[in-house]
Design goal:
The protein is mainly α. The chain has one domain (18-211, 223-247). It contains eleven helices and three strands. It has a three-stranded antiparallel β-sheet with strand order 1-3-2. The longest helix is centred in the first third of the chain and has 30 residues, at 20-49.
């Protein structure tokens, strides 16, 4: 379905289009992100710096790092049950409302001088990098057998243990980790670089979000002025590639052509 196809929409009163509703939505989104980084932040940090597997967050039940939150059954299975539910209901909203890594990248992106909020050949094709990241993760997990690639020694303080993890890691784990850290640093220059151009989870959700029930979409009143794109942290427009249903664009449209709604049944 194209981004302008008719949908069952939920209109928003004109008096709140560009004032109260967007501000409240942003406040709720930040509250959600803070809540989930509190719950999942340690797991995310361990996944980068302490997880012995190249593809983190999947093999937690076999992981020797017993202090990681991923070893908690409620956290591990709660996450992997929540993720598909959010995809079915709201597409890629997980990236904009829940993901701790996404939250960190968005905060770093506030200071980035290059927002890449324009429609050009780079912003059109660069998001395919998330699919390349997904393909690499699938290859490592299935073809290479998701072997342990470091020895997560715990001695003394936590950050000292992180140093030891790097010292006792294989090449593949180091390549993965420095690739992620490199994109994190890049996010200080290019807004949301990891989430937009490299994240494997984002690539998976981007493929699956076509089955989502609800989301922000452009109506037939859209004039392609790109006002929504210019305020989007992900440099996109409603229902297009990399849209995370964050709702930040809601008050930006001068034609009031953005609606949240349910797809019409085919």
């Amino acid at each position: 379905m194209s981004s302008r196809e008719s949908a069952v929409t939920i209109p928003i009163p004109d008096s709140e289009d560009r004032t109260g509703t967007p501000a409240r939505l942003t406040a709720w989104r930040r509250l959600s992100q803070v809540a989930f980084i509190t719950l999942l932040g340690q797991w995310s940090f361990y996944g980068i710096f302490r997880c012995p597997f190249v593809v983190p967050y999947i093999s937690c039940q076999n992981c020797p790092v017993i202090t990681c939150h991923g070893r908690l059954t409620t956290v591990f299975w709660g996450f992997w049950l929540l993720l598909p539910v959010t995809v079915i209901l709201f597409g890629r909203a997980f990236c904009g409302w829940i993901c701790p890594g996404g939250f960190v990248n968005q905060i770093l992106g506030k200071a980035a001088p290059f927002k890449l909020r324009a429609r050009n050949i780079l912003t059109r094709f660069a998001p395919w990098g998330t699919c390349a990241g997904l393909a690499a993760a699938v290859y490592v997990y299935f073809s290479l057998g998701q072997s342990r690639e470091n020895v997560p020694i715990r001695v003394g303080e936590f950050f000292h243990s992180v140093v030891l993890t790097f010292e006792h890691s294989g090449i593949l784990w180091l390549v993965r980790t420095f690739f992620v850290l490199g994109f994190l640093v890049l996010g200080l220059a290019v807004s949301n670089a990891w989430c937009r151009f490299a994240c494997p989870t984002g690539g998976l959700i981007e493929i699956l979000k076509r089955i989502s029930i609800f989301g922000f979409r452009k109506t037939s009143d859209c004039t392609d002025c790109d006002a929504c794109l210019k305020v989007c942290e992900m440099g996109t427009r409603p229902a297009e590639a990399n849209c995370t249903n964050c709702g930040d664009c809601l008050g930006a449209c001068p034609e009031d052509a953005i609606r949240f709604g349910m797809r019409k049944s085919s």
